[in-house]
Amino acid sequence: MVVTDLAVPQHEGPASHVGYLMVGTDGTTFGFGKVTVDASVRHGLAGRSVVGVAIAPTGLGHWVATADGSVLAVGDAPVHGDAAHLDLAAPMAGITARTDGTGYWLVSSDGGIFTFGNAGFHGSLGGAPLRSPVVDMAVLPDASGYWLASAGGEVVALGNAPECGSASGIGLGPTIVAMAASPTGNGYWLATGDGQVLCFGDAPFFGSPADLGHGPDDPIIGLSASRHAFGYQTASAKGSVRAFGDAYFLGHAPPGSMPSPVAAFAALPAT
User: The domain that contains 30 carries what CATH number?
Assistant: First the structure.
């Protein structure tokens, strides 16, 4: 079953306990459901380019990562540090937080991994030859490993993360832009800029924006899976959200509310 603007019988709990957040390249944030935002974030990120966001377990805070390695903690999200003081070989590509909020990982476009708080280090690709830049990562539920995904569809498993396949050998045209792990840790989804959703391991397919005629003028930028692997959400550069399976639809960004393209998307509860 594919759902775009309607909720279906939920597996995630009451609608008051779910939400999602989008952040523009200039730091403008827009939240839905339980997730709260702080309008002052935009000023704190002035002059920096947003590359990722992760939501704290309560939904009352989040972390915003920028290309230079900075991490801005908002609301009740604790400060765990960042990589802004480092001489980075490549810009950051994203941030992923532990489900308990006690740490997070930053991933750079050359496959470097930077850990903070209780986030464990399980290896990286920093310095290794890559056919295309790393665009996202996904972490196992028990945080004992993770996958790195590249724009060309390569997926590298590190730590205890199992090898579940990649999209690099299927003649993929559009680039991969986002990744989400299944709650079992035995699979993942990859999303392409033109709205395809590719499934690996035990991650099931529930539909994609491409199936709904999503246009090339509004590329997909983010993907988040529901807690029980019965659905997922995608977000686009113009703030459009599509929900599939049991994932909630809580709204799009109103026209004019995002003065810059959406660069980051995250949902609560995270897997």
Answer: 2.130.10.10
